[in-house]
Design a protein that fits this description.
147 residues, mainly beta, eight-stranded antiparallel sheet, 8 strands, 14% helix, elongated
Length: 147
């Protein structure tokens, strides 16, 4: 077993599902998806929306790893960002980095092992009974450092 510090960097993260206060679910293929917004964010400028998102953003392990047996433990140490948030076709976030402490089960992990970590990450924001889940990523990569 080996420990690594891993930084996951994402240029973009897009909302994929919204649950409203009544328990209704909407996905990003629906025409009115963009109309559903977090409470108290309708009139925020870009800077204020970004700060609101930074304060409320949760990063959780809720997805599915392709090879869960390759990992003994995964710990989120720090989340930096997003640097920008907007409601353009739904909530979009840009420039997020997540620092992880990762313990792998074998001595020679490769890039595929660490890229697998993106499959398990889920971003979530909740406010006023509305929850937005963000699981669509663009331009992402893992930087690995041995510990």
């Amino acid at each position: 077993m080996r420990n690594f510090e891993v930084e996951l960097s994402l240029k973009g993260v897009r909302a994929t599902e919204i649950e409203d206060a009544s328990g209704n679910h909407f996905d990003n293929s629906e025409d009115d998806f963009e109309m559903h917004r977090l409470e108290r964010t309708d009139n925020l400028d870009a800077e204020s929306l970004t700060k609101f998102v930074k304060d409320k953003l949760e990063v959780i392990w809720d997805g599915t790893l392709d090879n869960p047996e390759h990992f003994k433990s995964l710990e989120i140490i720090k989340v930096e960002g997003p640097m920008f948030a907007s409601y353009d076709g739904g909530l979009n976030l840009s420039d997020i980095s997540i620092l992880l402490n990762v313990e792998v089960m074998h001595d020679d992990p490769d890039d595929i092992d660490f890229d697998d970590l993106f499959h398990a990450l889920v971003f979530r924001l909740s406010s006023g009974g509305i929850t937005i889940t963000l699981t669509e990523f663009e331009s992402y990569y893992a930087q690995v450092m041995s510990v």
